[in-house]
Hints:
By secondary structure, this protein is α/β, with parallel strands linked by helices.
Amino acid sequence: MKQRQVKPAMLIEPGVIAQLARDSSIEMNVQDVPDLAASRELLPAGKKVYVSHLPKQTWQQTLHACRKVREAGFDPVPHVPVRLLTSERELDDLLKGAVSESGVQEVLLIAGDYPKAAGPYPAVADVLKQGKLTQHGLGRISLAGHPEGHPKVSLTEIRRAEHEKAQLAQDAGLQTTFLTQFFFEAQPFLDWSNDLRANGVQARLVAGLAGPASIATLFRYAVRCGVGPSIRALGARPSSLVKLIGDHGPERVIRDLASTTHNESFNGIHLFCFGGFLRTCAWLKRVSDGNFKLDDQRGFVV
Length: 302
């Protein structure tokens, strides 16, 4: 399949970038709950806020965080690593509590990077085949997408699983979103999204991006999460500039993605915060309000 090339960044209107920021989702973890009150001054009501699952986190901590997200006026989407579920009953209890107690309308199902399943669900497809989400009143689902593959799973298996999950979710009548692992260059994501579209996948495709963070932090998470070849973009700046600025934001990749928004290859962006929830909220607020300037490095300055 012929690859779609990113258009020259100079053609991009700032309003397109601002709209991507306004329509974006964002991620937090349970330790960010105390910051939700302050985030109300930075994020619009109804913003989709994903709640990650940290090591040793309990389901009750997840439900508590989701309840606080809903009380703050946002739309909570909990991560559910299915390999941690010990039984069908635990899945039922979790989904029931999420909907009835925490106002959850969507979950992000992931396998989770665990060598063995604790119960009957080694793969997301095993949960989808049971029809539990619709039984508990959920109409939306998010699934993980891996444009650059996965360090522990073959690319062939990754692509097979993505298509299987998309079909199972569609058959269940679920509004489906593929939310990708974060990346630092647009082209692998665009190639992936175009291939899914060419193969009939109609799910929403959302680009997962790293929010503003130090270079060291981004490298640490990128290595841990198995980010693919686009990690090379982290080292693209001259060392003196990196030392001066100290941080790396998603400006360049967002500007490249903005050049494709009139196509139907993808549907939006998502920001991972890496412990900097309020910082990323403030960044999104400035970009959403148009408080940035395009630069001559294919990015923009906030």
